[in-house]
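Task 17 of the worksheet. Students: predict the tertiary structure of the chain below and write it out as structure tokens. Keep your answer in the requested format; marks are given for formatting as well as content.
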Amino acid sequence: MEANPSKDEFVLIQFEGKSVPATIRDGKVLLPKSLALPSGHLRTQRFVGPRRASKNVRVRYVKQAGSYSTAAVARRVIDVLGNNTVAALLDVNQDRPNRWASGQAEPNEENRMQLADLDALAGHLLAAFTPEQAVLWLDGHDPYLNARPIDVYRLEGAGPVIEAMKAYEQGAFA
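Model answer:
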């Protein structure tokens, strides 16, 4: 008996330690939205996890760059989120972020790392959303996180929130 080529078949794909259901239609695997790339993105190689380091790449040096100074990062984050929000997210007095941005004070090591984390979050927010959408998304309930993204940031940092943004961009919950 010959198989009907227009009939869908269902398979399980092993992905990041999970079994993900997928459909095979006309000989092509249709990935669920949670694994799909945003439209306009082409996949040039099959996904097998993190990229392997090339043996030919070597870092010869890392130099100081003014655009990554503590003051510059503080100014960037304040410009995107506002001084009071930055102070609240970093759990510091409201005068601290502006003092860091002006160079009047230097944050301690923990605050420098938190500023860098917040800077990464702000960059991803502006890449994924308009400013108005970013405010709504941060304060709204996200199904990927099962919480408000701003609350997850306060508890766990930018990593999980950036992953949720990527899931949102890929239409995982559309």
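Marker's comment: DSSP finds seven helices and three strands in the chain. The first strand starts at residue 9 and ends at 15.
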